[in-house]
Specification:
alpha/beta; TIM Barrel; 8-stranded parallel β-barrel; globular
Length: 295
């Protein structure tokens, strides 16, 4: 394995333009056709979509056209996000179940590879792991026949906020398509380090997102996450150490790049796509592929 084997996926917010998590509308102001064409031209081999944006694109273009947009532009990896409230027992859970069913319907027709989840978003109490484990196992079982991985992001502003808690949620479920997404920003802002990543069993490390951060948090963690992430190599995270740990664990999938930034989202679309791609690929020039465990 060497740098020529690295494939990058533009996570949704990286090339969505002027929208952000929690915005009045999370649908991109740029048509999917334009985003896919630019992504392919720059060199991206994957794209992430939020459910609302992809549903809007399908309503406008039709499912067959959307499928062709990905294929014609070399987009081999498509991921869908962001499911929350799946572990609750109230009206929010009913809405979450409906969203997940819609996600699965879309995913089955577009060969989506991963669906991303948050676990206990904005919940301060410790996670109810037995309830969560039961719920996520059933989610995984529904996605498994479609070949879709269910990946959990540990977030510093959620109850599942660390690698340890993500492991407690996902280990020994008996559902092989459920695993963990490692986001370098969440590792840094959660007070973790590259060596903590090495505790993740290879079978559970199913997705990665790369990005950078300032040394200090700007306002709240959620504000920092939503408006102040940095391009890879332009912040204070030791990305080389985290990437090396991920490789050494044995990860061989594509690499997501999630730049959620007020500055970045105001750039012209192609400039934003190219800057995110180039700065991320540059990070792989500093890792040791020869030391990574063989897949």
């Amino acid at each position: 394995m060497d740098i020529s084997d690295i494939e990058l996926c533009a996570s949704y917010w990286t090339i969505a333009g002027n929208t952000f998590p929690g915005a009045p509308s999370e649908v991109s102001p740029f048509p999917l056709r334009e985003r896919a064409e630019i992504a392919g031209r720059v060199g991206w081999r994957g794209m992430g979509l939020v459910h609302a944006d992809l549903a809007a694109s399908i309503a406008q273009e039709g499912i067959d056209t959307v499928r062709s947009l990905f294929a014609d532009n070399g987009i081999r990896h498509v991921e869908l996000e962001f499911l929350v409230d799946w572990h609750l027992d109230d009206a929010k859970r009913v809405a979450s179940d409906t969203t997940f069913s819609e996600m699965l319907d879309i995913a089955s027709r577009l060969e989506v590879s991963k669906i991303k989840l948050g676990a206990g978003l904005f919940e301060d109490a410790a996670p109810d792991l037995p309830r969560m484990r039961d719920a996520i196992a059933r989610i995984g079982e529904r996605a498994a026949p479609l070949g879709i991985d269910i990946v959990v992001e540990f977030l510093p502003f959620a109850s599942v906020n660390s690698i340890d808690r993500a492991l407690a949620l996902t280990q020994n479920l008996g559902v092989e398509n459920v695993g963990i997404l490692v986001d370098t920003w969440h590792v840094q802002r959660g007070g973790m380090h590259a060596n903590d990543i090495r505790a993740i069993p290879p079978a559970l490390l199913k997705a990665v997102e790369l990005n950078d951060a300032d040394l200090d948090v700007v306002d709240s963690l959620f504000n920092d996450s939503t408006h102040h992430r940095r391009l890879c190599g332009e912040g204070a995270i030791d990305l080389h150490a985290q990437i090396q740990a991920i490789l050494d664990v044995g990860y061989r999938g594509y690499w997501g790049v999630e730049v959620i930034s007020a500055e970045h989202r105001r750039l012209p679309l192609e400039q934003a796509a190219r800057r995110a791609f180039d700065t991320t690929m540059a990070q792989f020039e500093h890792v040791r592929f020869s030391d990574a465990i063989a897949a």
